[in-house]
Amino acid sequence: PKQGGLRMQHIISTVYELTKGKAIVTTDVGQHQMWVAQFYKADYPRQFISSGGAGTMGFGLPSAIGAAIGVSSELNWPICCFAGDGGFQMTEFELSTAALHKLPIKIFVMDNKYLGMVRQWQDMFYGKRYSSVSMEGNPDFVKLAEAYGIRAFRIKRSADAERIIQKALEYNEGPVLIHCECEEEDNVFPMIPAGAPLTAMMTEPPKGQLEKPTGST
Does residue 110 lie within any of the structural domains? Predict the structure, then answer.
């Protein structure tokens, strides 16, 4: 990653620090989901809401809406949704539901302009022969949120992350969307190639191209 570039890990760890670990966290599916599990340290029951290995893209925003409606107001914790740019667009129309009900959810759109997890596999196992993973047609997510009457912020540099995230956390008059323009080709570790045993876990980038995963086509 380039120096000063915005990384998803930094966004997530900053949210953890500013909320002091007391937030209801929902995720979509992909690299950001793995990083949320690593960098938002869930210390309380029913705090981390994710579709897990079911891989339900589009899960993040609707589950945040459900949490906002279902969680007791006495808890008074922020509800933070972390969604990738791909999965978010599968259910982004639910922004209207959040806006109509003035639900104070914080929506972090982690935009790396790729279907990141699929790109990572094509990077490692297929010699970067990328196919159907580019999201270069993404909208301006700030303008998209504003079209629904939702407050929105943009983060491009890691130096701005804490200041902007703090402003988003303090806004509770309705939903707020934070468009995080992240590093495009960052890879998540550890990972286990498909069909491989736990002993084959990878904790760092390979030196060269790997053989394609067992059972893949």
Answer: yes
Residue located via tokens 């053989």: 211
Specify the pLDDT at position 176: 98
| Cis peptide bond upstream of 45, omega within 30 | no
Angle at CA of residue 176, ends 60 and 33, nearest 5°: 25
Q: How many domains would you assign to the chain? A: 1
pLDDT in tens, 74-103: 788 999 999 999 999 999 999 999 999 999
CATH of the domain at 95: 3.40.50.970
Per-residue pLDDT tens over the stretch 129-143: 999 999 999 999 999
Cβ atoms < 10 Å from Cβ of 196: 14
Can you give the residue range of the structural domain that contains 154?
A: 8-200
* CA-to-CA dists, residue 162 to 2, 14, 36, 67, angstroms: 19, 6, 17, 25
Q: Is residue 40, in this structure, part of any structural domain at all?
A: yes
Model confidence, pTM: 0.92
First to last CA, the chain: 30
Is 185 in contact with 119 (CB distance < 8 Å)?
A: yes
Task: Enumerate residue ranges in the chain where pLDDT < 50.
Answer: 217
Whether 205 is in a domain gets the answer no
Geometric angle at alpha carbon 138, from 25 and 188, rounded to 5°:
50
